[in-house]
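Job type: complex structure
Entries:
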Amino acid sequence: MIATIRSFIIPVGSVIFASLIGGIVLFLSGSDPIEAYAALLKGAFGSMTSITRTLVKATPLMMNGLAVAFAFKAGLFNIGTQGQFIFGAFAASVAGFFIQGVPPVFHIFLALIAGGIAGGVYGAFQGALKAYSGAHEVITGIMCNYIAINITDYLVNHPFRDTSPGNIVARTPLILETSYLPDIEGIPGGFLISLLSAVLVWWVLKHMVLGFEINTVGAGPDAARYSGMRVQRILLITMLISGTLAGLGGALEIQGVEHRFQPGFHTGLGFEGITIALLGRVHPFGIIPASVLIGAMKAGANMMQFSAGVESEIIDIIQALLLFFVTAEVFFKKMIPGMRWQKGEKLSLRAGWGGKV
Amino acid sequence: MDDITVLKLKGISKTFHGVRANSDVDFTLKKGEIHALLGENGAGKSTLMNIISGLLQPDKGEIFIHGKRQKIQNPRRAIQLGIGMIHQHFMIVPGFTSLENIILGSEPIKGVTIDFQQARRQIAILSDDCGLSIDPDAVTEDLPVGIQQRVEIFKALYRNAGILILDEPTAVLIPQETDTLFKILRKLVKKNISIIFITHKLQEVMQIADSISVMQQGVIKGVFSPEETDEQALAELMIGREVLLKNDYLPARPGKIVFEVKKLTVMNSRGYEAVSDVSFRVREREIVGIAGVQGNGQAELSESIAGLRKIKSGEITLSGRRMPALNPRKMIENGLAHIPEDRLKHGLVLPFSIADNQILCTYYRRPYVHFFGRNPKAILKNSRKLINRFHIKARGPEEAVQNLSGGNQQKVIISREFSRDSSFLIANQPTRGLDVGSVEYVHKQLIMLRDKGLGVLLISSELDEILSLSDTILVIYRGRVCSIVRKEDATMESIGRIMVRGFE
């Protein structure tokens, strides 16, 4: 129980502190912080349309957050979510316009599966590099992000370019409407799928044998080897699943929002998975509110700009502050009475968060 | 050698959680001598040296340096007083050059930059003075261990250390490097530097020391010069204990062979041969003990048997089947139980619950899985049963193992390994760091397991543990089995001698 409360204090405290400092920044830049925040809230939750917009924004964040968190559990820092997300999005859009004449529901799932597989294979590739050659996943992840961006740039410029008359930009054709994700009772289908993914991730980590293996590799790699676990294979599978989640996120974004692949559409959504994972305390059920929160900030930013006249970049500042506070655990432990340093806790300089390999 | 006392300890006592590490220790170091501090693991040598170098504060006692009473609050103060400690694990930055490592922490400054010219000159002077050569621009991690150690010594000299403490300096060296080190130490002593040399190797003590203090269980048992004593007398002082548990247990009734290694050769992590051509067999209802001073290949031997380390050549047979290397699960499924040497690193996942640690090797089998998922009910039931049966003191099965005491952590491992259906157990240092009660508990469990029919391989650097539990004793020295004796024929003296020099 106390542990549960503890795990809430840091994210909630971070949101409060980040908003306070954000307010000061707003004030210094000559705006009324209260008016700005009110507009932000209204833009995010003020109407059914704005709520839908918040959930749409939350969807890719949640998928990428889950991808990052899942890898954290095995002690891996999957910074390659960006590239996996991009490949997933690309594969889903190709499946979206290429496959024709299948019933709508089928088409939706075919495109989703294509996205998941593309991201998963790419993640597994990075996992294999880590497991069998020892290459650090952060380095290969960053490299693979560039590779994904450049390969998809080439593909949309040449083989898969939208050839419709009058088009002058590099992009794929529109996907068929049979592969569009529908809203269900006003809730975007993509958001429902990401919720389902969160539950699945939780179940795998908590109740499946694979989850136990992943947690063991993350928390005690030497003990994992001692007990006969095949650590390399587990690392590979972890990255496969993590990449699948990111790739699926890309597919949801294409099928639910963009409806075609255009370079640059992702605007760093993959990287934001790291913020989400940390804000959600690397727990699937923490990631749900974390992604809705950041999604709301994105959704409300425009309203804030229109009605309070505040540049939407202020949202980036608040997000950065959030990340800062979430990772600055030491700060809270010193600030808040009762949050004592636990026995054995040390300031971690290298392999924080999910454990180490 | 003149008779000026540079360091004098009077009545030093230090207690950790009720265990006396040092009690009423007197120690005198004279100018320009090499004073060996001899004792087994856990005799209290390191505690004493940590007190001198300011890492620990004594509960009682006084320290005099050059006749003046001093309080050494921290390592910085120790350096000011001219005390330099060379740890067994070097305190150097691997990627730095020798020069950078030597001046680290006391760099000569010119304005806001480091005066490397000045540092270079000082090191050259030191080098001439002591007759030690060193390449200041070599990157430390590329140097052989012996030279890295020389960098450490330089570092202490650079800070004007007049008293050098070397903690088991030869443990990491190959024989040729050891010879070089000894030459260096001789040179330093001629320059009026005084040296405390901590070791448990008798041969070295006789070779290098001017005086010898023998420490046992926190007490100095005597101070000698090498001329007035010999290795045997020192071994008895160092190892000998009043109580020998030797014949407390009923003799074994060995059955058929359960485990066998043939001509096993294993390399250590540095690429040297750590286990050479070792062969032995273990029968049912028998404990085979491997005696030896730590670092003579025991770690590599047990790791290779457990499937955690590559084998260069040789074969391992368990329950009649030849085992593939590097496959711990195969070994476990074929009947291996294993109490690893490093229980915190290999034996346990510290943030996990007791219950999860107790199924660490069987988590994928029924009843701990059902359908697709884990079966928490069965896992907890198993844990409650084991907590009762092995008297583990904990709040419950869901308590994290990191909150338990060392003894109870070991009990968690024992409960896991002993409750599995196995035919052969390796126990590597199963009682290291445990309190007396827990030690006795572990010993009783080992005997019970033996009488249940298992073959047990006990690896320990505690000689009395080996002698009291084993039915057959192998002595390992520099990776080779130098002697195989039956329990009836073993004496502590003879085994102690083989342990420290490889022959009787």
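Summary: Chain B has a mean pLDDT of 87. The longest strand of chain B covers residues 5-16.
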